[in-house]
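User: Teach me something about this protein's shape.
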Amino acid sequence: MRVLHVNKFLYRRGGAEGYLLDLAALQRAAGDTVAYFGMSHPENDSPLPYAGHFPSEVELEPAPSGLRPRTVAAGRMLWSPSSRRGLARVIDDFRPDVLHLHNIYHQLSPSVLAAARSAGVPCVLTMHDYKLACPSYQLLDRGRPCQACVTDGPLQAARRRCKDGSLSRSALLAVESWLHRELGLYDPVQVFVSPSGFLADVMRRAGVFPDRLRVVNHFVDLNGIAAKEEPGGGVVFAGRLAPEKGVDVLVEAVAALPDGVPVDIAGDGPARPALEALAERVAPGRVRFHGRLDKARLHDLVRSAAVVAVPSRWHENQPMAVLEAFACGVPVVASDLGGLPELVEPDVDGRIVPADQPAALADALRDLLADPGRAHRMGLAGRAKVARDFAPDRHLSRIRELYAEAAEARPVRRRSAPAPVGGGVAR
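Assistant: First, the predicted structure itself:
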């Protein structure tokens, strides 16, 4: 099978990109031919044979300064002719059996779906966030959980100024989502994949193609991931350092943990300077920031811990941080939002605590740190869950079923030429 993955970033920027790249590797190992389409970016993996057809880089976080750059960025969010042209050329050369789309919003826009529809290629879209129901992605209104747009439509984002309190930024996101819905620009997608039941429920309530929604868990390949062998250790957080991740809640909780407990934070992001300053103020010398780590070093760090903290203050979908902690044989203390309670079973492989409450987080962490043997057994229970419910072969089989479903549901192809062999694509 020839699979073309489409995502705005093509390097391990976050969970969506990690999943995309891991799935592509799994598919290649199974004999599929895989190619990529995305936005030009200096950190993109290489080689990317079709990089010459990618649209130019545009940075939206933070928003560009100046009237012209902002106007260009806004136009790109609504519709990107360069993305459509570029993907059309890649489709013509690569001749995919299916387009597997991921985060195409903003930098690519749903214009890429127009290219797929013109070529008659079936489309499957994995939803890694809430963009199709929430214009600002995260079900947050200035840092607080919010589902106003889910029930009352995307224009609520402008009324509530939910994007950083800015009317102009919130209005742009609201208009973008409203216009894309009104024009039916996501109609060419035959199957929408939700990694969590929570996200799927949000999309159903928002009226986002409820008949095309399918829930498919992510996967973790346990081959090459050793389990923690001995009890003990401290606390680890792994993820993007952004306000919605609640890392500040963990830092605030550190002061209530026993003296000498190491707290390690792996990852990078816009909140890092503020978090480092907070740690120096409330827990001097007790929090270590490691920056972004490759997988091997991250897994080593996780295995050194007694527990992994996921203190998110937004509705996480199905974060790989939880699954990879379990794969390493380490239990997880997570907040009670989004898909997190679907992953963590209290007192079996972790604990669930109220979001945004440092005292509750500290209590749960302290409880596991006080009984290293119990924490170790819980971590191994998490690893057993991953082996049972999140196996790669199970995931790949389900994804292939959805590819077949999308092919069955697509309009008749407009092209009839046979697919060429090769095309300069890695196998």
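Now, about its shape. The domain at 234-389 is CATH 3.40.50.2000 (Rossmann fold). The two ends are 11 Å apart (CA to CA). If you'd like, I can walk through any region in more detail.
User: That's plenty for now, thanks!
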